[in-house]
Amino acid sequence: MSTPANKPRVIVVAGATGTGKSRLAVALAEKYNGEIINGDALQMYEGLPIATNKLPLPDRKSVPHHLLGFVKWDEEPWTVGKYVTAAIGIVRDIASRGKLPIIVGGTHYYMQSLLFECSLVDGNAEHQTAQDQESKWPLLAAPTRDMLEKLRAIDPKEAARWHPNDRRKIRHSLEVYFTSGRIPSDIYWEQRAKNAAGSAIRISDHRGRELNEGPFDDDDDAASLLRYDPLILWLYADLDKLSTRLNQRVDTMIRAGLIGEVESMQQVLKERESSGIAVNQRSGIWVAIGFKELLASHVLASLDTDLGRGGLEKTQAQGIEQTKAATRQYARQQHRWIRTKLLQALGKHRALERMVLLDGTELSLWHRNVEATASKVVSAFLKGNSIPRGSMMPDVESEILVPRTKPNIKARYCEICDMTLMTEDEWNSHPKSKKHRRSIRTAVDWQAQYPKSLGQETVFHAGSAPDER
Predict the structure, then answer these.
(1) Cβ 431 vs Cβ 454: under 8 Å
(2) 3-state class of 290 per DSSP?
(3) What is the DSSP letter of 45?
(4) What is the Cα–Cα distance from 309 to 292, expressed in whole angstroms?
(5) Which residues are CB-contacts of 351 (< 8 A; sequence separation ≥ 6)?
(6) Do residues 214 and 401 make contact, with C-beta atoms less than 8 angstroms apart?
(7) Beta strands in 190-272 (DSSP E)
(8) N or C: which end of the chain has fewer CB within 10 A?
(9) What is the C-alpha separation between 331 and 247, in angstroms, rounded?
(10) Which of 162, 197, 167, 168 is nearest to 109 (CA)?
(11) pLDDT tens-digit profile of 121-138?
(12) In this structure, are residues 348 and 215 in contact, taking their beta carbons and an 8 Å threshold?
């Protein structure tokens, strides 16, 4: 394993919700003199230990935890730039005291941004609130159509990457332009050129099969884009089996008082609304899973006095089922992020060897498959030794640890169907689709194409085009 020179060693524990990331992080911190840095956006907020799944104090075993439970509900939500700035200082402090920084959480976007130095714009720009940005650049608050028109005017290449309805990405491209004063596609090109220098290096698994191709031809180039010397432990679990555990966990959260926390959040909303304070429920603590799902049933039950006990229980049960569904969906999103984003970044920077899978599928085998195996891996990492991958999850690693290639994205518009296609495959297959053929038939003026001739009208079979007679 190549080691970035003069960079602190850090352990990163990643994985879907409900896989036991916090439990593993504490065990490693106890054994290797570590301190934990929270990488979960919602766990940064104070209170709501059940809704945000904070590890209970006794289970933290007196291990120092940073960036946990300190943001007030009425504060502006933290941006990834603000998180990275704070976490960098904490990592530096922990390492300076001879201790091991351990980063753990489910907001993998935050943790990935902390691991890699390359970014499109100065992180200071991300410290601005959305309101600050819209005040400075009013176009960012304009309709999506107007923002896309501006982006097409300043940077047609960048505009062609996004679907016309993808407001978030269009807005971000304009943020890059406004904050940097540069064309976004130029910045992307420079970054790709920097990353693509050199010939490909191949990393193989224990059977000699290729895991990834990286774009660098020496260790210094690859290491320069890593902010730290990391070991990433992916606490992997079969998603179908994990879903059953997540359902059970929601039931446990309900018994522990989740509904009471939702009611307390609702009370805060009422107090602010009565004071004329607007609350954006699409960001911050208000997006915690369970809030909107259980609140809807709670409010309905409180408004309908004729529901009766049976109706009340049914309404609440529906909210619980919706909470379970949202939790399962979130786990799959986290799993997908690691496979399509984090692995892609590691592969591109020839650092995929720094990812190790731990089998967290069976709780009954936790100590052997997760804790003991992780301890062995971390010990080898800290000593600078190679990691014996054959003892981990060889078959799963061979399948999973392959960065998924992104399709060539370029927006193309079919005027006949009034439809935007985003990939080459979509565009090439679209003319053969039923929707396109049906639209062509509707759009063609058959009377004009085949006028009456010599006093006789051209006759078609009902519902058919001329070439189908």
Answers:
(1) no
(2) coil
(3) B
(4) 22
(5) 214, 222, 226, 230
(6) no
(7) 201-204, 210-214, 229-236
(8) C
(9) 12
(10) 168
(11) 444 444 455 666 777 789
(12) yes
* Residue found by looking up tokens 């990353």 in the block: 195
Q: Residue 338: exposed, middle, or buried by beta-carbon count in 10 A (0-12, 13-18, 19+)? A: buried
**26, 36 in Cβ contact below 8 A?**
yes
Residue at 285: amino acid letter? I
Answer for the pair 203, 337: CB distance below 8 angstroms, yes or no: no
- The CA radius of gyration of the chain, in Å to the nearest whole number, is 27
Which among 224, 9, 16 is positioned nearest to 116, based on CA atoms?
A: 224
In DSSP terms, which residues pair with 90 in a beta bridge? Answer: none
CA–CA separation, 439 and 447 (whole Å): 17
Q: Could you give the CA distance from residue 12 to residue 374 in angstroms, rounded to a whole number?
A: 11
For the entire predicted model, the pTM comes to: 0.71
Characterize 111-125 residue by residue with b for buried, 16 or more Cβ atoms within 10 angstroms of its Cβ, and e for exposed: bbbbbbeeebbebeb
Distance CA 351, CA 211 (A): 11
Structure-block tokens of residue 12: 């990163």
pLDDT tens-digit map of 265-276:
989 988 998 898
Cα(334)–Cα(41) distance, integer angstroms = 13
The whole-angstrom separation of Cα 321 and Cα 338 is 26
Element (H, E) at 255: helix 239-256
Closest to 361 in 3D by CA, of 351, 371, 374, 370: 370
Nearest to 465 by CA among 419, 432, 431, 449: 449
CB of 132 within 8 A of CB of 178? no
Q: Is 180 helix (H, G, I), strand (E, B) or coil?
A: helix
Q: Residue ranges of the chain with pLDDT lower than 50?
A: 119-127, 198-224, 391, 453-469
Q: Residue 363 is encoded by which pair of tokens?
A: 């709780």
Q: In the structure encoding, which two tokens stand for residue 225, read together?
A: 């884009």
Other CB atoms within 10 A of residue 284 CB = 21
Strand partners, 86: none
Q: Give the separation between CA 66 and CA 37, rounded to whole angstroms.
A: 5
